[in-house]
Amino acid sequence: MSRSKRSFAVTKIGADGTRDTRAGQVAVEEPLEVRAGGKSVATLMRTPGNDIELAHGLLLAQGFINRVEDVVTARYCEGAIGGENTYNLLDINLARPAAPHFIDPIPGDACGISAEQRVRELAAHLDVRAEFMQLDPDTLFALPSALAAHRVRDLPTAVAGAASRQDLDPLNAVHKVVGHLLLDGVPSTDLTLALDARVGFETVRAAAAAGFGAVATTAGVTSMAVELARQTNTVLVGEVSAERFSVYAGA
C-alpha cells in the first residue's frame, strides 16, 4: 500500500439526513526525526517520501551543512515498533561536527524576541546577494499554470527548475526541492522557488540559505518573510495570477 494515502471508513451525511459509509482515502502524515552527528535536530510531521532530500534541505537551512559533501551518510534507523524499521528516523553522519550558527532562539529583552531582531541576526549569517535578481514578468504570469502541471496530489507544491515536490507542510516541500537540487549538484543562484502556499519567514530563510534569487507564490506572504527577503536581496513575489502579481521585495 502506498505510504502517501491511507484508507478509513468515512460516513458522509447529507442535508436531507442521508448517511453513506464507505472507504475513503486521506493523506498520510507521519513523524520524521532527523538526527545529525548523533543528536536530534528536529522532528517533522511530513508526507512520507523523499526524506533524504528533506533532511538535506533542512540541514542547509539550519546551518548544519553548506554543501552536499558535508553529509557522509544518510540512513534510516530502526523505529520503536517491535524493532522494525518504521522509516521515521533518519540518521545523518556529518563530515564535520554539527555547529549550526542560527538554529537556537535569539536572546531578547525581558519581553521576548522582536521580529526585527530575529531577522537581523539571521540575515547576518546568510550569504546576501549583491543585488536583486531581475525577473521576467511573463515567467511569473505563467507560474500558476506551471505549478498546476506539477500538482500530482492535492498537497502544497514547491517547484524550482525541473525539480518539484509535494508535502502536507509547504516548508517540507521546499526543503525537499532544496535537497533535490543539492544532491543533484544543480546551482540555485538563478532559479526562482515557486509554491502555491503562503510564504513565511522559514521559507525565505530556506531559499536564501540555498541561494535562490527569488521566491514566488500564488498565495500571500508574511511580514517577517518580507523583512528577511529585503535583508538578503531575495526577490519576493506574492499573489501571482495570470493577470497580476505583487512584488514585496526587489521591485
Automatic annotation (TrEMBL):
Q: Which residues form a coiled coil?
A: none
Highest taxon of the source?
Answer: Bacteria
Q: Keywords for this entry? A: Cytoplasm, Molybdenum cofactor biosynthesis
Question: Which GO biological process categories is it annotated with?
Answer: Mo-molybdopterin cofactor biosynthetic process
Q: Which SUPFAM superfamilies match?
A: Cytidine deaminase-like
**Pfam families assigned to the protein according to its UniProt record, in alphabetical order:** FdhD-NarQ
**GO MF term (any one):** sulfurtransferase activity
The protein in question is named Formate dehydrogenase
